[in-house]
Amino acid sequence: MGELDRERLTGALRRPSVKKNVAAIHVSGKLTLLQRKLSNVLLLNAYDTLITAPKHEIDARTLCLMIGYNSNDFDTLKASLRGLAETVAEWDMLDERGRQEWGVSSLLSYAKLKGGICEYAYSPALAEKLHDPKVFALINLDIQKRFTSGHALALYENCYRFVRTGSTGWWPLDLFRRLMGVDSAYYESFKQLNAKIIKPAVEEVSRSSNIVLTPETRRRGRAVTDIRFLIEENPQLAILDIDDGMAARAGPVYARLRDLGASDRLARQWIAQHGEEAISDRLAYVARQSGVRSPVRYLGAALRDGFGREEDGGTAEAPPPRSERVERLTRVRDLAAARTPTQRDADRRLFLSTLRDAGRRADFERHGWMSPLNVDAIFAFWDEMAPQGPQG
């Protein structure tokens, strides 16, 4: 998703509220590593409109790329989507008034592939739970990419929620097995569970993510009955941690971006990437333009392509269309800017993977979709990605 993003679908979600209530969401059955990554990217893509839109869309090739599939491997994508639709999420929690709430829902209410687009939806009840920041935190996709084990990613997802409290609290072993998706009789033995699941997963989480885990067990007699994980920030990878956005949301630039029509996630992403001063310059530039139909898209182009900078006296204009090729490139740029941040990142990386010449790659890195050395390749790429898009 994220960044989910951001942040995830499975496991116990125990976050203290004002009343110190405990919320839990867990899933039945097993999710493969690819299915877990898929669920996270789908959630990240949908998050801004999770409770306001009845359905969500993402380019199927973009989705495959973000998950690590071959971009044309739709059979694997179909199988993974089917698995998410067949997997049940269950929650048992207290609401804000202290009333007990139990519910059950499939992870996806439906998914379909048509015309190169993946369309999907969550049940309203599950979407409400996933969107609640007190219950759920989006997972950083840069961290997710580092995982090679589904058990390690599952452990990370369930532990990261408690990073601010420093401990997951005690989980009965039967709950822990459900969170990790292991229901084989082989793992009824704690010795086997520890050797095959816990130790390798703890090692990978501590090596690959922004947290370090230390497991502790509780016994009744000689038998282990409960487990918890102490959580510390990984000093080597803490930079990958997700900013909760509170500082950015408190600033005037964030408020101006939201007033302009930028989503919460996009506003925070731009602030983190460009800084408030640069965005303030571009906002002033956009405000001086007339006839702008999409201020957010125009601002995105200004940030990406460098026009409207303060050092230009605030008077620099976007490069004028001097030919049909420039006009087509401009339409490509606008088409790319209209996609979600997740899709835009995947589009750029997918196109870069097609460039073998170092000079052409460097030119694209510098100029993006306005790259003069890659005009024909850019047109061919977008003709395939969006046949009605950049053509004149």
UniProtKB/TrEMBL annotation:
GO function term, MF aspect, one: DNA-directed DNA polymerase activity
Pfam families per record: Rep3_C (PF21205), Rep3_N (PF01051)
Highest taxon listed in the record's lineage: Bacteria
InterPro entries noted in UniProt: Initiator_Rep_WH1, WH-like_DNA-bd_sf, WH_DNA-bd_sf
Record-annotated Initiator Rep protein WH1 domain positions: 18-159
SUPFAM superfamilies: Winged helix' DNA-binding domain
GO BP terms in the entry: DNA replication initiation
Family statement drawn from the similarity comment of this UniProt entry: Belongs to the initiator RepB protein family.
Name of the protein in its database record: Replication initiator protein
Species name: Palleronia aestuarii
Origin organism lineage: Bacteria, Pseudomonadati, Pseudomonadota, Alphaproteobacteria, Rhodobacterales
